[in-house]
Amino acid sequence: MSESTRTTRRAFMLSAAAALAASPAAAQETLLEILQSPRRGNWDDQFDSAGSRTAVREVASNLPIFSPQTVSYVERAIDTYRGIVSSGGWPTVPAGNKLKLGVKDPAVGILRQRLAISGDLPRSAGGGNAFDSYVKSAVQRFQRRHGLPDDGVIAQYTFAMMNVSADVRLGQLETNLVRLRSMSGFLGNRYVMVNIPAAAIEVVENDRVVQRHTAVVGKIDRQTPILSSKIHEVILNPYWTSPASIVEKDIIPLMQKDATYLTRNSIRLFDPSGNEVPPESIDWFSRQAIEMNLTFRQDPGKNNAMASTKINFHNPHAVYMHDTPQQSLFGQIERFHSSGCVRVQNVRDLVSWLLRDTPGWSRREIENAIARGDNQPIQLVEPVPVYFTYVSAWSTNDGVAHFRNDIYARDGVDELLVSQAL
After folding, report:
1. 90 alpha-carbon distance from chain centroid
2. Cα-Cα-Cα-Cα dihedral of 272, 276, 278, 283, to 10°?
3. Sign of dihedral through CA atoms 407, 408, 411, 414?
4. Which residue, of 6, 120, 124, 251, has the greatest Cβ tally within 10 A?
5. % the chain with pLDDT above 90
């Protein structure tokens, strides 16, 4: 509904009262007096919860993180945060019980101050110790800016992100401004950007984000690398060949516990000549599997580590993007579980976009090929640039600063290692 046709509660009540103005009823006169009183302030901002949301900038945007506008917005955000820091920053919200709608607690009064200073809560929302709908909307906005589930409840993760000091956030913006400036040139009419600390993917076309995907990226001890390349191939129903690091760290210990692991997971062994080697012929408690230089290859299928899809691009780290049978990982707050590769939620939407200009590969043809289960490599007619990057702070609009956990400790401040402190 457009703004011109939307009827607020205030407009409705005023029109109803005016229609009955001829009546001598005291209640009607009182109603008009209340609504027209200047002491009521701006009812459209204070009476309707929609007013509390429109008083601040929306968080959602189709502006790519890598754009000249982002650089400009971050520069403005830095000025804003310098002002916040010079004014004393924001208060620490006592991290006790959960704070949510309906709660009355002195901590809510501090929370209101904190949210007002960072621009999440309109100043017109007032003070007090009640967690009302205005505070909930402000908390949800804060959560969206920090990559958290926007349930409007302040618990462990939200407390931790909220209590990072203003001067540390200022430094984080300044650090990331350098990264953003280095990538603000022309990156291609179509490109894919993986933001590692956000565990998120932007699919960009003509300077607009046309798809967003939740991702799972590398563990702290098996980090996803920063790189630039071009996606040249999509493989449907891929074989998965295990890297040597996973063989040594994961598969061999599993075989020591369960001798049927490889067979149950459709993983076959091949020697350097391509001959298949029976798993039972290997002494898994020795170095034999490593010394024989065996290839561990998993057949396509529901157990495959890449599920339906693998997305290839040349790089010295032997990493790629792919589907996963572990879809539940995408619902977690922290999505740092891989061995360096990037798992993509709703990967078939991305594949359809990548193959859009490749003849014979419509969405229906992609789905049919996956359903058949046959291994199918597809070369892109036009390779698409891909960028793996590390941006833990950025801005998508004037007054909307986004922050993420510095999962790989590249921002140089211990206070930003939020998840490790929990």
Report:
1. 25
2. 0
3. positive
4. 120
5. 72
CB 233 within 8 A of CB 375: no
Residue 104 DSSP SS3: strand
Q: Please, which residues bridge with residue 88 across strands?
A: none
Measure the CA angle with vertex 375, ends 370 and 380; round to 5°.
80
Nearest Cα to 389, choosing from 205, 234, 198? Answer: 198
**Statement: residue 281 has pLDDT above 90:** yes
Determine contact, residues 194/388, Cβ cutoff 8 Å.
yes
The whole-number pLDDT of residue 216 equals 95
Active site amino acids: 322, 341
Pairing of strands 227-236, 309-313: antiparallel
Q: Note the pLDDT of residue 269.
A: 96
Taking the C-alpha atoms of residue 215 and residue 196, their distance in angstroms, rounded to an integer, is 9
Q: What is the mean pLDDT of residues 98-117?
A: 95
pTM of the model: 0.81
Interstrand relation of 240-241 and 295-298 (parallel, antiparallel or unpaired): antiparallel
Residue-wise burial string across 113-126, b where 16 or more C-beta atoms lie within 10 A, e elsewhere? ebbbbbbbbbeebe
Average pLDDT rounded to a whole number, residues 196-214 = 97
Contact 248, 289 (CB under 8 A): no
Measured CA to CA, the distance from residue 302 to residue 264 in angstroms comes to 12
Q: Which residue has the higher pLDDT, 123 or 277?
A: 277
d(CA 422, CA 416): 12
Task: Give yes or no for a contact between 91 and 159, defined as CB atoms under 8 angstroms apart.
Answer: no
> Partners of 50 in the beta sheet?
none
Q: Are strands 321-322 and 342-344 parallel, antiparallel or unpaired?
A: parallel
Residue the block writes with tokens 């919860």: 49
Q: What pLDDT, on the 0 to 100 scale, is given for residue 39? A: 34
Q: Which of 323, 377, 380 is nearest to 354 (CA)?
A: 380
